[in-house]
Amino acid sequence: MTEEQLEQTETPLPKAEASEDVEEQNELPEQGQGGEPTVETVVEAVLFASDESLTDNRLAKIVETSGKQVRQYIKNLNEKYQANNNAFRIEKIAGGYQMLTLGTYNYWLKKLLRARSDSKLSPAALETLAIIAYKQPVIRADIEVIRGVAAGEVIRTLCYKGLVKIVGRAEILGRPMLYGTTKKFLEVFGLNTLKDLPKIEELKKPPA
After folding, report:
1. Which residues lie across from 168 on neighbouring strands?
2. Which residues are CB-contacts of 101 (< 8 A; sequence separation ≥ 6)?
3. Percent of the chain, pLDDT > 70?
4. DSSP E strands: which ranges in the chain?
């Protein structure tokens, strides 16, 4: 979040049985029972995890309900947040909904963002940044294949620092986000263009 705005294959059952079972598994109670998720809390979880605004129709498809119900759940959640004096609300942004921190807390969140920007990059962050710089535009899955570990948190950190940004979506199943470097990346590393990056051959260690 920026200062201005305070991503198995199974054996199929016979058709009639599969339809019946799926309905039973996907059916969530309107009210929580013994701490189990409800449709409302699923809407909350999806919005909490999303890094972009989601339309009511898209939310409806994800949680398998109607757009009208989604809007009612969002209204209910905001009433709960206000009653509990929470520091966030679900707001209408760019035609969709997103969970945002209240403007009252901007002063402290800006301090947090500055602290993040001032902190040095970890080895994992430098490694991830190098992969993005040389492979861009690149999806997270490809970064994780190269590094051999999950890269979601590291990529978010690089985005917070303004070194990496989303540059589009890949034309493959699921349309995952594509990442690339920013103008700030060039400034920080003293590069005029990406063509000034050292050649990969130059980075290889000389033979012992």
Report:
1. 178
2. 1, 6, 87, 88, 109
3. 77
4. 88-93, 96-101, 138-139, 164-169, 177-181
Q: In whole angstroms, give the CA distance from residue 190 to residue 50.
A: 33
| Alpha carbon distance 76, 39 (integer Å) | 12
- Predicted TM-score (pTM) above 0.85: no
CATH of 15-104 among 3.30.420.10, 1.10.10.10, 3.30.470.30, 2.40.50.140: 1.10.10.10
Say how many C-beta atoms besides its own lie within 10 A of residue 52's C-beta. 11
The string of pLDDT tens digits covering residues 73-99 is: 999 999 999 999 999 999 988 888 999
Supply the pLDDT for residue 204. Answer: 63
CATH of 120-203, one of 2.40.240.10, 3.40.50.1370, 1.10.10.10, 2.60.120.260: 1.10.10.10
Task: Tell me which residue of 107, 80, 102 sits closest to 91, measured CA to CA.
Answer: 102
